[in-house]
Write a structure and sequence with these properties.
mainly alpha
Length: 159
């Protein structure tokens, strides 16, 4: 982690737990939802830029659950996909693309902008999943299914 990425990643005083609590409260108090959603989105993007993928994934899931606005969540999610590793500590690329597929299935117009950034995974000979474990085929199948969902949603929306 560079000094610049650390500065961006930890721009939220007190970490992300208070922000996640605010998101839960905002879900029951709609007037606060827009402000909290903005904070969730900005902090998630900072965590992606700072290479803190676990916190970014947690924040993006909270943003999705709060807003159900794919146009807010999908761009940051596809940036998260870019930094997720093929295996190891979560979230892996499979988990990030699966959340992207969930967003795309529920909000197909949001998939139109992000589908081109994951479509290449369908044609790649060696997809970015771990190959040194017995679950490699399952991970590869899950990644393919999630990408197909995103691409299919984009096609259904007219992209």
């Amino acid at each position: 982690m560079t000094a610049n990425s650390a500065r961006k990643a930890y721009a939220t005083p007190g970490g992300v737990k208070p922000l996640l609590l605010l998101a839960e409260i905002a879900a029951t108090h709609p007037p606060a939802a827009d402000e909290v959603a903005g904070r969730l989105e900005a902090t998630a993007r900072a965590r992606v830029e700072g290479d803190c993928r676990f916190e970014a994934m947690t924040l993006l899931r909270a943003l999705w659950e709060l807003t159900r606005d794919g146009h807010r969540v999908a761009p940051a999610l596809v940036d998260l996909v870019r930094i997720c590793p093929p295996g190891g500590a979560p979230p892996t690329i499979v988990e990030a693309v699966e959340l992207l597929a969930e967003v795309a299935a529920a909000d197909p117009p949001a998939a139109t902008a992000v589908a081109p950034r994951v479509r290449h995974l369908l044609d790649t000979d060696e997809r970015p999943v771990r190959h040194d474990q017995w679950r490699a085929v399952l991970s590869d199948d899950a990644l393919l299914a999630a990408v197909r969902t995103v691409v299919g949603a984009a096609q259904a929306a007219g992209a």
